[in-house]
Automatic annotation (TrEMBL):
The keyword Oxidoreductase applies. Gene3D superfamilies: NAD(P)-binding Rossmann-like Domain. GO terms for molecular function: 3-oxoacyl-[acyl-carrier-protein] reductase (NADPH) activity. It is an enzyme of class 1 (oxidoreductase). PANTHER family: 3-OXOACYL-[ACYL-CARRIER-PROTEIN] REDUCTASE, SHORT-CHAIN DEHYDROGENASES/REDUCTASES FAMILY MEMBER. It holds the Pfam family adh_short_C2. The gene is fabG. Belongs to the short-chain dehydrogenases/reductases (SDR) family. Residues 11-192 form the Ketoreductase domain. InterPro entries: KR_dom, NAD(P)-bd_dom_sf, Sc_DH/Rdtase_CS, SDR_fam. This is 3-oxoacyl-ACP reductase FabG. Keywords: Oxidoreductase. NCBIfam families: PRK07231.1, PRK12826.1-2.
Length: 253
């Protein structure tokens, strides 16, 4: 697709946790649609490598790597200052970075709790906070928070993960109300069973059990989530805010 005819031409898009999986698929699709994409990972080497691979795959794509840990508030602040300095604006933030640490409630340690909440909720909050400051300057923007079907309906052994993703939904609703007057839209996506590195390691019996609840009878792909991200990033969703889009193949029907 020509860079001049994509849905995101002229937009600066930051995607956290974009080295692989859902984040990587989002970065590639946004680049295909003409956005100038900022690919975030924790280290500059992996961010630059991911950016180079996307630029190699997509002629004329504009993709840069930007390294910071979303759970490190000082690093987040510094990164967004650099975005303002280097790009002057930010049109879309995709809060995708997250971790999964399963444990039955009786086995949840303080360090596990802190790590999951700091990354999944804290990282989403602080990135959204910094993005809102940039977007308010231009009176426009879209913040897209990746939650999970577990954040909506829970799951045994995932109390902390589910709580962190439920907190993301509460944050989304509140920010949509607060930032709407500044023409900043805030929405969430709640993926279901998506084929990623995290789900690939599940035992076959567990995968079969999950699949029995998927009405569309297939595992979701990272590109399925990326399509929803594209919609919420584009002007086609200009009047959509405070919503949660379930990309789950009908698991909650």
């Amino acid at each position: 697709m020509s860079q001049s005819t994509g849905q995101l031409v002229g937009k600066i898009v930051l995607i956290t946790g974009a080295g692989r999986g859902i984040g990587r698929a989002c970065a590639q699709l946004c680049a295909e649609q003409g956005a100038h994409v900022l690919v975030n990972t924790r280290t500059q080497d992996t961010a630059d490598a991911a950016a180079l691979e996307i630029r190699t795959a997509i002629p004329h794509a504009r993709v840069d790597g930007i390294a910071f840990d979303v759970g490190d508030t000082a690093a987040v602040k510094s990164a967004f200052q650099a975005i303002h300095r280097n790009y002057k604006r930010l049109d879309v933030l995709v809060n995708n970075a997250g971790i999964l640490r399963d444990a039955l409630v009786g086995m949840v340690s303080e360090s596990l709790f802190d790590e999951v909440m700091r990354t999944n909720f804290g990282g989403t909050f602080y990135c959204a906070q910094m993005a809102a400051r940039l977007m308010a300057r231009q009176s426009s923007g879209s913040i897209i928070n990746l939650s999970s079907i577990i954040g909506r309906y829970g799951n045994s052994g995932q109390a902390v993960y589910g709580a962190s993703k439920a907190a993301v939904l509460g944050l989304t609703y509140s920010l949509a109300k607060e930032l709407g007057p500044n023409n900043i839209r805030v929405n969430a996506i709640a993926p279901g069973f998506i084929e990623t590195d995290m789900t690939a390691s599940l035992p076959e019996a567990k995968r079969d059990d999950i699949m029995r609840g998927v009405r569309m009878n297939r595992i979701g792909k990272a590109s399925d989530v990326a399509g929803a991200v594209l919609f919420l990033s584009s002007d086609y969703s200009a009047y959509v805010t405070g919503q949660v889009i379930g990309v789950d193949g009908g698991m909650i029907i």
